[in-house]
Every structure is written in C-alpha cells, then in structure tokens.
Amino acid sequence: MDRVEMLFTAKEVEEQVDRLAEEILEAYNNQVPTVIAVLKGSFMFTADLLRRLPGIYAVDFIRAASYGDGTETSCHVSISLWPTVKVAGQKVLLVDDIADSGLTLKCLVERLKKEGANQVDVCVLLDKPSRRKVEFIPRFVGFTIPNLFVVGYGIDYAEKYRNLPYIGVLKED
Ligand code: IMP
Ligand code: MG
Predict the structure, then answer these.
(1) Which of 97, 111, 150, 170 to mutate to test the pocket of ligand 1 (most atoms within 8 A of CB)?
(2) 112 lies in which domain range?
(3) Residue 140 belongs to some domain of the structure
(4) pLDDT (tens digit, 9 = 90+) per residue, 7-41?
C-alpha cells in the first residue's frame, strides 16, 4: 500500500485559495475574464476558486496531455477536449492544478493565442519551478513546492486520491 503524507491541510489549501481569489479580483479589477480549466486535476481547485470569484463570465474546460521528451521547441500536446466557449478576441484565465515541466500549459497558452485569444493568464494551485523543461511562469500561484509527487484535492495517481480534501505526498512502500 502507498502512503500519503500530509503536505498542506484542507485549511491551508482553503487559505491559499482565498488569497488567490483576492489577487485575481484585484488583477482584473473585479472583472473576471473567461475561465478555462484544465481537466481533470483542476476540478476541485476550480470549483473552490470560482465560488470566490463573483461576476458574470464564461467557464469552460479543456483536456490536454503533453507527450514527447520536451526537448523539442514545437508544441507536443494532445488535446482531447477543446472548449466550445468563444476564445477569439477574449481575455482568458487558464486554471490548472500543477505547473511541472511547463510543457502542457505553455502549449495551451500558445494554442489559445493562435485561436485569437488576446490575453491568456495562467493560475495554478501548485508550482514546481525546479522541474521546468521550458521557460514558463504562471501569473497566479497558490503554493511553490520542490520536486515532490503530490496527490489529493483533485490531483491523482492512477486516477486515485483525487477525493482527498488535502494535498499529500505519495510515498511508495
Ligand atoms: P507538465 O507541466 O506539462 O509537465 O504537466 C503538468 C501536469 O502533470 C499536471 O497538470 C498534472 O496533471 C501532472 N502532474 C505533474 N506533477 C504531478 C504530481 O506531483 N502529481 C500528480 N500529477 C502531476
Ligand atoms: Mg493536469
């Protein structure tokens, strides 16, 4: 059996989500742009974050996975769900669970801009800057963490642990 060691309690996560919501509202002068959340790992974070972001704005989802070794300069990301919401001419807030190598998010930002988005900002709950393979800096970050494999609060290992209300580090026995 794998063990999960507590990294951030549900309360600590909640406090960061509160802080992020304030930061986002201030950055956009309370006018939240179109939100696109990256499935599946961001589902819990997005649900909690958006409940703290009042206003009338579109919310949609995208599903993507990066592949390839990440040393190439072109985008290698397979998109299995593309949002139906209008992207052209819009300002977009892209919400994801983790920025790791940065490949997925960097590619998604590029794709959305290619579709005509005039601004794409990224918000992640967790950032692992030491794992970057490409230059990528998310605008809004909940927690910056070292190179750890985390689960919980929507984040999985083999589709499990998403239901945990806290964020933990998976330890193999
Ligand atoms: P990348 O930044 O393109 O390498 O991909 C980031 C994605 O990899 C995240 O959205 C997660 O789905 C997944 N990922 C990265 N680190 C972890 C982790 O520690 N636990 C679970 N999934 C992770
Ligand atoms: Mg993901």
Answers:
(1) 97
(2) 11-145
(3) yes
(4) 999 999 999 999 999 999 999 999 999 999 999 99
